[in-house]
Specification:
alpha/beta; Quinone Oxidoreductase, Chain A, domain 1; Rossmann fold; six-stranded parallel sheet; binds zinc ion
């Protein structure tokens, strides 16, 4: 297949709210790069923050930039020095790119390195017909994995990493926050052998989705979910808290429902500093609290391959909308309504 000179791309062309459809030259792969033809790209909460041009975006984003860091596609060209991939290979990518000369990179903790650049945030991403990716960031997908499911591996990796941040088998789990990543933790925890998974949120639609994804019970966070969790666990509290909301009231509820000596994995990002009853929730409780960021490179990706490839986890119920690239506005409207599941852009149209 010949590669055209120009392509469509969606991104931020100037500071301020909103995004635009751009006409851009197709990137040429430099040494060590791979050119990927994008078949599916998923809209992330981070993309909505950038769309809205919030304080974080204003500090981080340097327009013009093409958005999109959750994607799948196929290899269409190789840069100099890349000789271990066939054209047509289905791929996704780890978005965190270590900068040349990156310092203090601990093996096994590459996802926590600070000298990084992120695809679709700091450099052009995958809301486009083509995206350029360093070979070292390429993940080869099984050919039978549907591109729209493959595109979910970035946030799915966050969920898999959070669940496996502590032992899960035979333990009771509370997920606070049924956002897209919170919802993804449910089937992962079940596949890992959790004794029971409880979920709290304030959105009734999301609580319903939580039950469809295998939650044992889903509680409205505004109606004393702590009492409900304590009742469900015979007054003991859960063994594991997965905090996915970033909301102060949910964090407080989560720790109140955690049993003494329990484990808490914290992925949700509060928008500003919050208050926490440190003495009761952490010290006296003897809780083990872990911050969780990103996904392990490549350990988490191998786990995802097994979970998706065997059918142990089915992410299809999470996808509610699909759009072409030129319909990006409708796609972002759906995502910003808060009433959607995952919204997918299909640059090459539906397959
Ligand atoms: Zn994302």
């Amino acid at each position: 297949m010949s590669i055209p000179e120009r392509m469509r791309a969606v991104g931020k062309t100037k500071p301020g709210e909103g995004l635009a459809l751009m006409d851009k030259p197709v990137p040429r792969p430099g040494p060590g790069d791979v050119l990927v033809r994008v078949t599916a790209a998923s809209i992330c909460g981070t993309d909505v923050h950038i769309y809205n041009w919030d304080a974080w975006s204003q500090a981080r984003i340097k327009p013009p930039v093409v958005l999109g860091h959750e994607f799948a596609g196929e290899v269409v060209a190789l840069g100099a020095g890349v000789d271990d991939l066939e054209l047509g290979t289905p791929v996704s990518a780890e978005g965190h790119i270590l900068l040349p000369g990156a310092r203090h990179v601990v093996p096994g903790q590459e996802h926590l390195a600070t000298d990084i650049e992120v695809i679709g945030i700091d450099r052009d991403g995958a809301f486009a017909d083509y995206v350029r990716v360093p070979r070292q960031n390429i993940w080869v997908n099984p050919p039978e994995l549907a591109p729209e499911i493959a595109s979910l591996q970035d946030p799915f990796g966050n969920a898999v990493h959070t669940v496996h941040a502590q032992p899960i088998a035979g333990r009771t789990v509370l997920v606070t926050g049924a956002g897209l990543i919170g919802l993804m933790t449910i089937p992962v925890a079940k596949a890992a052998g959790a004794a029971a998974v409880y979920v709290t949120d304030i959105n009734p639609g999301r609580l319903e989705l939580a039950l469809r994804l295998g939650a044992d019970a889903a509680f409205d966070a505004r109606q004393d979910p702590v009492a409900a969790v304590m009742a469900a666990t015979d007054g003991a509290g859960v063994d594991v808290l997965l905090e996915m909301s970033g909301a102060a009231p949910a964090i407080d509820q989560g720790f109140r429902a955690l049993r003494p000596g329990g484990d808490a994995a914290i992925l949700g990002l509060p928008g500003k500093p919050i208050e926490l009853d440190w003495a009761a929730h952490v010290v006296v409780k003897g809780a083990t609290v872990r911050g969780v960021y990103g996904r392990k490179i490549w350990e988490t990706w191998h786990r995802m391959r097994a979970l998706l490839g065997t059918g142990a986890v089915d992410l299809r119920p999470l996808i509610t909308h699909r759009f072409g690239l030129e319909d990006f506005q409708a796609a972002f409207d759906a995502m910003r309504s808060g009433e959607s599941g995952k919204v997918i852009l299909l640059p090459q149209g539906p397959r």
